[in-house]
Specification:
22% helix; alpha+beta; single chain
Length: 248
């Protein structure tokens, strides 16, 4: 193969790689410029988990029936209860998180040790083992000093105030309800997403069909976002890779 042919093949290969890079760069550039897309409306059960919730349950109990009575056993209102209680009903979750924690630790330790050993007599040969004016007392000596000091502190303070509607996705045999909900809000090019799931008791639902997050068992609350602001605050891929492989 001639040199001209090799140069031509190398040029074609170089132009091909350059074109692929430009196409990939244009795709990445268009993705960076475009606004984040909202997720399609889906089954709320996927937020709480596709599998059925399994929790410890009390033994089953039978309710007394009164067919000739106007009052139904277990009812909380004579005219009917409008609170969510069936699969598919909607209720409002009030999230009010105000957590703070402060921990201070201080540790100091020091140790000093010294050991000496001497030879008083060694079959009369101690004079020959050492030079004139030398001594074998002490013949062996060790000393060491070590110290350590450590200080640590944690000062954390969080405050979150949110309201989100959730859907009852399952009803457990003991009457507890599994809920799941999500909320997405897009402002300019920033998308904020709130996810919540957990297990609640029907008795904890207030008369206005709301429940605080503190009464949700196995609560999973996620609040985050994606978009221009989140992208700027996130470390670049190169730095993340370097932090993982850097030994120091």
């Amino acid at each position: 193969m001639s040199n001209n042919t090799k140069i031509g093949l190398a040029a074609h290969l170089g132009f091909g790689l350059l074109g692929a890079a430009l196409l990939g760069g244009c795709s990445s550039l268009s993705d960076a410029i475009a606004s984040p897309e909202l997720s399609p409306i889906s089954n709320p059960a996927t937020v709480a988990g596709a599998n059925r919730v399994s929790m410890p349950l009390p033994p089953p109990r039978s309710e007394a029936s009164a067919p000739n009575s106007l009052w139904r056993a277990g009812a909380t209102s004579f005219f009917g209860d409008q609170r969510a209680k069936q699969v598919g009903d909607i209720l409002t979750i009030n999230i009010e998180i105000a957590d703070s924690a402060q921990v201070n630790n201080s540790t100091q330790r020091s140790r000093t040790t010294a050991e000496e050993a001497g030879i008083q007599a060694l079959l009369g040969l101690e004079g020959n083992l050492v030079g004139a004016g030398a001594s074998v007392d002490p013949a062996i000596g060790f000393d060491s000093t070590s110290s350590s000091s450590g200080n640590g502190s944690v000062n954390r303070q969080e405050s979150v105030s949110l309201t989100v509607a959730a859907v009852i996705t399952d009803r457990l045999p003991n009457g507890n309800l599994v809920i799941g909900g999500s909320q997405e809000v897009r402002i300019n090019n920033e998308l904020r997403e709130l996810l919540i799931s957990g297990v609640i008791r029907p008795e904890d639902i207030a008369s206005d069909n709301t429940i605080p997050h503190t009464k949700i068992a196995e609560a999973r609350i996620s609040y985050g976002g994606r978009g221009d602001i989140s992208q700027v605050q996130r470390d670049r891929y190169g730095k993340l890779l370097y932090d993982r492989v850097a030994p120091f």
